[in-house]
Design brief:
Elements (H helix, E strand, L loop, with lengths): L22 H15 L2 H20 L12 H63 L3 H24 L1
Helix pairs in contact: 1-3
Keywords: Membrane, Transmembrane, Transmembrane helix
Protein name: DUF1003 domain-containing protein
Pfam family, one: DUF1003
């Protein structure tokens, strides 16, 4: 029987149960490991282990050496460590990228709100300026009254002379 594309597949039961893990907990653990692997302490510990390993396998009696000169077992252990470190570091970077993306979106929406608020305040200030320019101030009224008083005095002076 061919499967139809317009219907979902039936769930297949596997013989072995699928392992269940919390992706968030695993992600936090991977970030802690990646953060530790990026420290000088890790480099010092790793260097100390390698120096001890090589020293033991060169200087110890032949019967006690577990990894003779080409140090194949050491190479295997370092390869295994690197094969686990790379995906853990990538997982930690992906989680950081996700956090950065969320932070970017929040910053962008906050900036849009700030721009909208600034435009609103600019319009309000412009409206207030227009309203204030139409209101007569005390100094303006005083100067206009003085001007009218001078005009009246000059008109009265012309009438008296005529």
């Amino acid at each position: 029987m061919t499967s139809r594309l317009d219907q979902p597949r039936e769930l297949r039961r596997s013989v072995l149960p699928r392992p269940h893990y919390d992706p968030e907990s695993f992600g936090r653990l991977s970030e802690r490991i990646a953060r530790f692997m990026g420290t000088a302490r890790f480099l010092v510990y790793m260097t100390a282990v390698i120096v001890a390993w090589i020293s033991w396998n060169v200087l110890a009696p032949v019967s006690l050496r577990f990894d003779p000169y080409p140090f194949i077992f050491l190479t295997l252990v370092l390869s295994l460590q690197a094969s686990y470190a790379a995906p853990l570091i990538l997982l930690a970077q992906n989680r950081q990228d996700d956090r950065d993306r969320v932070q970017y979106e929040q910053d962008r929406s906050r900036n849009e709100r700030n721009i909208a608020d600034t435009e609103y305040l600019t319009r309000e200030i412009a409206g207030l300026r227009m309203a204030i320019s139409e209101v007569a101030t005390r100094d303006f009224l005083r100067s206009e009254l003085e001007h009218l008083l001078k005009e009246l005095e000059t008109q009265n002076g012309h009438r008296d002379t005529a």
